[in-house]
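hey m, so remember when u said the tokens were messed up on ur end? i reran from scratch. heres the input so u can diff it against urs
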Amino acid sequence: MKTENWRKVEEIVSEALALEGEQYLSYVNRKFEEFPELKGEIKSLLQNKDEADGFFDSPAALQFAGFFDDQDSASMEGQKLGVYRILRELGTGGMGAVYL
């Protein structure tokens, strides 16, 4: 994507996220019509808005307490962690594991 297009997408998404309800929908639909070539990128960045709202409002330790308890890496594949999906374990060591 060209730099100027990315800047426009970033501006539109930032402005949209500051709005709520009918104002949000009206703004996004207007921008889709105004910049049809950017619609896919804007839409993909906004599609997880509702799932992501509040994600950082509580500490991760509380939000995901017990998520990793008594589970082997194979059983974690495909699970969701917030808006993310665990694909597979990349490695372990020390006191933790890293997942893709």
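this time it looks ok to me. Helices lie at 3-17, 21-34, 39-46, 49-52, 60-63, 73-76. if urs says something different then somethings off w ur setup not the seq
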